[in-house]
Amino acid sequence: MSQTIHHNKQDIIPQKSKGQNFLKNKHIINNIVDAANMTKQTAILEIGPGMGALTDEIIVKAGKVVVVEIDPKLVEFLEQKYHNHKNLKIIKADILKVDINELLAVEFDDFKVVNVISNLPYYITSPIIFKLLTSSNPKMKTLILMMQKEVGERILAQPNNKQYNNLSVVCQYYCDIKKVCLVGKNNFFPVPKVDSIVLAFTFNKKNLAIDNETKFLEFIRALFAYKRKTILNNFATITKDKTLATNVLNNLGYNLNLRAENLSLNDFYQIYQGWTTWQAK
What are 226's strand-pairing partners? Predict the structure, then answer.
């Protein structure tokens, strides 16, 4: 049976297919907004505003707010709710199809700092995070993102932890990350099956001399492809030459029986550089 929210003569039915779970705890809303460190010189991009629980607070503190919402019913609702707010723009779009750099250039030309706030839909959390991280826009300073607790714990995980994976390494390559707060499932309507966590990502790309960033990220992903395999076996799949993979790892002094979860960001970098150097010979 569907659950309906009645608001100002409008009925909103949360869409499970769009991952819609609306935050209702005012204390947590304030924690999220405060984490963005807003002033009137700050612009905010909010992804998936829903019914505006976060937006209500953001528009009071930020210089300009742009919200991107895919659901036409919610867009209509937001347009009626905020029709008197001059510092807010509502865009109906799928964020995964939006050119982030173009959006920032067009909408935030007068701002030097743009922060992102989002209660991420569980089913597209990773694609949205990767899209934001790889946009590499100098205006974008901080991301305040709420996500499934399990995913957030993976992002925070360190080497030698079973939760540590490709997402952990890539996020930590681009950003310094800290936990803002945990959010129990009962703080949402309708109530989801899992708890959430809010993380603050501060852009601070690690200063690694990488010639091809896309190739480096693909390399990290490939070393995690089969988590139970050793780095030698995964690396050999990448090089298509087990002898070459063995030589590179031995030359760098790595134990061939290590797994990807044992490697730090710097280890991935050293192996990647060792491989590219070997290829150049």
Answer: none
Q: Cis peptide before 190, with omega less than 30 degrees from 0?
A: yes
Residue 191: how many other CB atoms lie within 10 Å: 11
At 193, give phi and psi (nearest 5°): -85, -15
The pLDDT confidence band at residue 78, using thresholds 50, 70 and 90, is very high
Is 241 annotated as a binding-site member? no
Mean pLDDT on 35-50: 94
| 50 in a labelled binding site | no
**Does the annotation list 218 as a binding residue?**
no
CATH number for the region 213-280 comes to 1.10.8.100
Which of 250, 222, 252 minimizes the C-alpha distance to 237? 222
- pLDDT, one tens digit per residue, over 204-217 is 988 788 888 999 99
Domain 5-203 has CATH 3.90.950.10: no
